[in-house]
């Protein structure tokens, strides 16, 4: 099961972003950074990218909302940015739209090993992300997935 903190933070971030006429695209918690880093990606409601002033306008209210909720007892860095032209797949819609496209999945096993796997995206459900890697079906547990990113065609595809 994925860690609940990003979902809780996204729930807190949505009304703050909406008050600034923006929407939250993604919330990432980078636990391998010291201090912990929270990345909130926002965009305009029409899907276009935001500018630096818009990011700055929601940064302080987001920090206040996170502090008031008491979910983060430790020191952290808050980054507010645009999703830009990055090719990370984040939403169910992304995973549906890009089915069949070449992707790289970065994951961390329960033992702590970080893996990168490439293949064509077959889909995502509640339990796994599925890839076709050179004719082999890979099922990567969602709780291990750190990132799914569109790539150039994998070798031998």
Question: Which characteristics define this entry?
Answer:
GMP Synthetase, Chain A, domain 3, five-stranded antiparallel β-sheet, three-stranded mixed β-sheet, 157 residues, 2 domains, 38% strand, SH3 type barrels
Q: Could you characterize what this model shows?
A:
This protein is 25% helix and 38% strand. With 157 residues, the protein is α+β, with helices and mostly antiparallel strands. The chain has two domains: 5-81, K homology (KH) domain (GMP Synthetase, Chain A, domain 3), CATH 3.30.300.20; 92-150, SH3 type barrels. Strands 7-6-5-4-8 form a five-stranded antiparallel beta sheet. Strands 1-2-3 form a three-stranded mixed beta sheet. Strand 2 (36-44), helix 2 and strand 3 (76-81) form a beta-alpha-beta unit. The chain is globular, with a radius of gyration of 17 Å.
CATH homologous superfamily designation of the largest domain = K homology (KH) domain
Helical coverage, percent range? 10-25%
Number of helices: 3
Which CATH-level-2 architecture of the largest domain?
2-Layer Sandwich
For the record, what CATH class of the largest domain applies?
Answer: Alpha Beta
Strand order of the largest sheet: 7-6-5-4-8
Brief overview, please?
With about 160 residues, the chain is an alpha+beta fold. It has helices at about 5-20, 50-70, 90-95; strands at about 20-30, 35-45, 75-80, 100-110, 115-125, 130-135, 135-140, 145-150. It folds into 2 domains: about 5-80, K homology (KH) domain (GMP Synthetase, Chain A, domain 3, 2-Layer Sandwich), CATH 3.30.300; about 90-150, Roll (SH3 type barrels).
């Amino acid at each position: 099961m994925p860690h609940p903190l990003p979902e809780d933070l996204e729930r807190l971030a949505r009304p703050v972003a909406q008050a600034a006429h923006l929407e939250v695209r993604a919330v990432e918690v980078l636990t391998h950074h010291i201090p912990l880093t929270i990345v909130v990606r926002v965009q305009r409601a029409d899907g276009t990218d935001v500018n630096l002033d818009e990011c700055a306008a929601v940064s302080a209210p987001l920090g206040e909302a996170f502090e008031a909720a008491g979910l983060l007892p430790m020191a952290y860095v808050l980054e507010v940015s645009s999703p830009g032209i990055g090719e990370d797949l984040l939403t169910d819609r992304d995973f549906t739209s890009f089915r069949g496209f070449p992707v790289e999945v970065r994951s961390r096993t329960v033992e702590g090993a970080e893996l990168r796997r490439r293949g064509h995206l077959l889909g995502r459900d509640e339990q796994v992300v599925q890839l076709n890697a050179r004719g082999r079906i890979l099922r990567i547990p969602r709780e291990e997935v750190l990132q799914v990113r569109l790539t150039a065609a994998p070798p031998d595809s």
